[in-house]
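Can't paste images in this forum, so I'm doing it all in text. The chain is below; anyone willing to post the predicted structure tokens underneath?
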Amino acid sequence: MKNLPFWILVLLLVSCNETQKKESDQLNKETTENKEVLDNQLLDTLQYQTFNYFWEGAEPNSGLGRERIHMDNVYPQNDKNVVTTGGSGFGVMAILVGVERGFITREQAVERYEKILNFLEKADRFHGAWPHWMDGETGKVKPFSKKDNGGDLVETAFLVEGLLTVSEYFKDGSEREQKISERIEKLYDEVEWDWYTQGKNVLYWHWSPEYQWEMNFPVGGYNECLIMYVLAAASRTHAIKPEVYHEGWARNGAIAKDTTYYGLETELNYFEHDDAPIGPLFWAHYSYTGLNPKGLSDKYADYWKLVQNHALIHYKYAVDNPKGYKGYGENQWGFTSSYSMKGYAGHRPGMDLGVISPTAALSSTPYTPKESLQMIAYLYKDADSLIGKYGPYDAYSQSANWYTPRYLAIDQGPIPVMIENYRSGLFWKLFMQREDVQNGLDKLGFTVTK
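Text version of the structure:
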């Protein structure tokens, strides 16, 4: 080749480089496509297992989600058949995931929803609000604590949020499906949101016919309860005034006092009675299973920035790992209220016991897809002992060499729902297209952009 003219050598080199580039581009494309296939397979598996908690694992009489499922069949409180109001709100959405992903038929879902509505219509309610827990066989209130034996407006809001997406899904369906929608709308209209203000400009969490307002829990933000105020404002029959939101939830604007943590703005002041800069990650999930934070803002916050930064702060905290716990890092992160070594505990940066709760990262997939998928891949490829019949177990700690083969509805429920919002936006579309929801958001001063 040394006798070839210079210009021919140049052409040969260019041709060779172009061939190598095409081969490299093709290899990169195939690698990307293969990763997407694997990611989708992982998400399919994860959604199926967590959906099944609310399908096969449901309490048989009511069709609702059990508060807890222990694979070791040990129930110290004898509460195997207790059903959860809020967790069942996520559960009725999970059933729609089952329909959309082909795990069950539409007809099977209709039959289950009819059973659920038969139960909810007859179950204990207190000025339209269901209790936190109910006996799955009788529908009678199961006290959450001594004085918490009446209506729980926050748990009711999570249930209604889920039911309204089901109503939207079936409203233009067959006559049988439309009847489901009509029954849900009636239940929603019967919730007396305004009554739970006691005539003041704030919503109260609890009321009991025995203890009245003695729980005395006015709900001020920021926490997991934003959806309660949105639904209360959106109500066609028992709506709250805007002042209830601005003075009660937003605390006359004090909610907007944010901080910076791990280089990210928190947007709002987390905790009404605590100086902690960030909360557990379920706060970024429960209200947003239906309420779409993308493009949502009011005079206090950009809600997409809020939830995304919330998740990223948890991720950065785990990577930083200031306490030096075993396992923390890019593939293992996320902290929320869950089972712990000594019962149930709240976990978050600043209240860190070395426990990772998989739902925290997995339910954050819409906000942090790369970081969440890393966690999902780790669990299914490198830590399958942490996976059971209904998906990842509730919590684990490598530092304590501990995990529990147990599940909680409020942790499993957001996983299939939020992953579906990441994949198709299904529940965000269904909830946000409602005229009453849009009216409620407008009433409270929210702006929704696309």
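The first strand starts at residue 68 and ends at 70. The mean pLDDT is 95.
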